[in-house]
## 1
Amino acid sequence: MDQLWDEIAAGETVLESEPPLRRVTVVTLRILQSGKELVEVAQLMADGSWRPRNEAPAEKMKPGETASETARRCVAEELGVEGPGVVVSAGSERRVRRGPSPSYPGLTAEYVFHDVDVQVPGLSSWNFWTREAGDGVVAGHLWGWR
């Protein structure tokens, strides 16, 4: 529950009542290279366990951020790449998914996704690792092309 309150305090999650609903806006990145899309294959947790992912890079939007700003923050935080070489498409596709929250059992969640195309220079064409600098729960990320 501490993590849920942290998300609410950071403005990444809005909790509505009657019945309780967790509302989250997420920016999902499509990063292509040689016809393949970048995915987070797995996460190495701080306790040494693994969590399979097979998901595109994504980040929760913070209050006042645009989808483009969130995408740039995601590239910087998750992949360690910043600067003018990172190109984020002007538009985004929007989709909504509602159902049980995978993070908080018993709580319904509504996810609003903004899918954006991003060009990121200098990424390896092979699977590669990045280290997590953030929450202390995740230690690293394994990335691959699919």
## 2
Amino acid sequence: MNEQIINKIKILGGNTDAVHADKNFVENWQSIRFDNYLYGKDWDVYGIDEFYSIHQKLYKENNEKFYRDLTEYYFSLHDCTYGQYFFKDWMFTPFKPGSEDYEELDGLVEEDDVRKTVKGKEMDFVCIFYSYGYPDHYFVCAKDPDQSNPAVYGTDHEVYFNEIENEGSLEEFLDRFLTKEEFREVVKEYLQGKLGE
């Protein structure tokens, strides 16, 4: 895992203290921790009207605290569905004989068809994110030839691995997420426009 990816993960709120150069990608990914959700740059301000409605007195009295509280809430592990992405680190090995997932895709998807899109010696995957959008699962091939910046693949539970697309490198993929500062600016712009400020 390269330094740019490690830095991006830190900026997005991830803890990379256990990442080491002597580990492979999966070992490093499974050692990362997030105490927050992530939001894509195409996020559609889900739940902001409700948050404002509940906290409008604070908005008027202490605007800075309103935005600090809002950002802390959205970047926590809350139970609301606001279009966020969830960090994941579980393995999916549907083509590995003897594995828990072996034959899960039997009769639905052939390994050779997956190989047409996915680069790697073995078709073992680590799920890196889940979302409410389409596609809703994002994977990295555990044996991607570039362990420092592997390709990310997207697929949806409706067409699991029957339709799989290359979403770009991990470094590119992480660019689609808002930092806390960017998130705050999106919300600020939305509320100021809505309230005519």
## 3
Amino acid sequence: MSGNRVLRLLVSAAVAVAVVGLTAGCGPKAAASAVASGTPSASASAGAGCQQVGTVNFDKTKFVLHAGLAFGAFHHFIYAPFKAGSFTSGAKGRTSALVKAGLAGLFTAHEMSVAKTDAESSPTLCKLVAPFDQASSAIGGLVSKIKNGSASSSDLDKLNGQVNTLQSSAAADGDAAPDQIPSATQLATGS
């Protein structure tokens, strides 16, 4: 298998899992009640992210933890190595960088999903649900481009912009979630 093909498969798998994790919605209860009532789910309607306020204990604290880990994993293991050229064919440590990026993609998707649930529960942070959905859309667009081989650095820059928007929006609401770099164990276990 050629190096580019392996890269595409690894990145596609990581991004696909990230899309599934970020678009999981509000859980089976919300989906079932939306189907039963004929109304869209909480994440699909405007301002609906605030309908689940109070469902998570210590929501702001958990949001800062999970969002910080997601932002740190994305920036440290995906964005920075990509910008440094670590994923290009022939780069020293390329295989290691690709494996770490794949794990970081899965980890980022999981932590973003948990952080979104925490944000939905907080009256202060519930307005961040829409930026989480925008980041999810950006990841979905990147998946398509990776699959057909047309992904570029501007595509990753766009996704980085979405992540940075989430981070700055949280800080503006008084709940800064600075990058927290996950340990190798956290990456490997996904938690």
